[in-house]
Amino acid sequence: MLEARLEQSSVLKKVVDAIKDLVQDCNFDCNDSGIQLQAMDNSHVALVAMHLKTEGFALYRCDRNIALGINLVSLQKVLRAAQNEDVMTLKAEDSPDALSLVFENSENDRISEYDLKLMDIDQEHLGIPETEYGATVKMPSAEFQRICRDLSLLSESVAIEATKEGIKFSCTGDIGKGAVTLRQNPNVEKPELGTTIELQEPVALTFSLKYLVNFCKASGLSNTVTISLSNEVPLLIEYEMEHGYVRFYLAPKIGD
Amino acid sequence: EGTQANITNFFTGA
User: What span, in angstroms and rounded, lies between the C-alpha atoms of A245 and A18?
Assistant: First the structure.
């Protein structure tokens, strides 16, 4: 059986908020390394991979691998009943047809108990190859979100170019064009506010802004985001948590 | 603006 306790419900609430507009139904795979999820969006353009590691749980017990087939809209409805600071306990039998969620406040005088019906989801798992990326950029997640939102008002696509000069986001649309260039600017006192760029080789790729804006819904998970790029392979956007991550992969737009 | 590639073209079934 599964029994997993999070000190703060906000962890799972933020993860679900981050991915619910990209995927609807997905398996939460529970095993001795924690709770993992991998799912593609309906159009098979983007993929999300999530891992909540056992170290992030105040209590974690999972005797055998259990797949929890969950509709994320339904899960979000149940999670609305949890306050951010509540302790959350997830419980499921070995072959479950429901997931039990218990929310307890810090004063220990309120216990909320919910059951979420589970579904059978036949989900394809993709093998994600180890990739040496040509460029890796670490920057404040709020700034990346602002750039994506601003450019999405002008165009459907953004060209991302990483060179030794910096990383440039540019787009052209019906009303005009726009570009934002970030130069390497490490912040010694507050690393989360700095921008670092590791460049192995120049990279130039084009991506759909609709997806990037969607990924930015994960900004609440981390102050920083890591963007990894290589020519002609999917972009990797990673939001790292204290004990886990949410990663988004996006296939590029190719040719003209 | 290019043609949108499919993620399954890059990541194979496992």
Answer: 11
